[in-house]
Amino acid sequence: MLDREGYRPNVGIILVNHKNEVFWGKRIREKSWQFPQGGIKYGENPTQAMYRELYEELGLRSEHVQILGRTRNWLRYNVPENFVRRESRGHYKGQKQIWFLLKLLGKDKDISLRATNHPEFDAWRWSRYWVQLDQVIEFKRDVYVEALKELSTLLFPVKQETRFLRKRRHKQNKSAERDVVIQQQHLVLADDESVVQQHQLLVQISDKS
Fold first, then answer.
1. Identity of the highest mean pLDDT range in 7-21, 79-93, 145-159
2. Mind listing the GO molecular function terms for this protein (predicted)?
3. Fewer beta carbons within 10 Å, N or C terminal of the chain?
4. How far apart are CA 2 and CA 5, in angstroms?
């Protein structure tokens, strides 16, 4: 089910424990980690879809969690073409998501990654709310930051979020600076090669003379 712009309606779940640590699941047979998420089926509203995905992926029922909040608007990310099934290319762009912040009322033992015959994760862990997202697949990272930022105000003072985002921007700036240096080095090498070629040409002309 796609909207007119080619985005599939979806829900994402940020689950925290009593320490405000966040649940991360490792995608089955992969190295990437992510939050629980899944598509909204025809006839479902986002809350109904969230509870269904919560059970399918984590084995948790509504009585195990408390809804602390949700994002006000849809958050979108585009899926690179090489991740899209061939028959869907051309009209499928990506996902649009409503994100929920949930507090776990139950215990860790209530979490089951094998609640259905089609598990999404093969391992899980609790992590600090603000962590680097290097192990999240790249095209989802910006949406993760948006969701974490918007919902963090329900848990933390603004200073924690600001400090994390400042570090992330600093890391991005450093990466951009490295790219510029590499480009400059390539230009210098190209100039050096041009000088060498010009020198060789002059030598050849001199020899012919």
1. 7-21
2. pyrophosphatase activity
3. C
4. 8
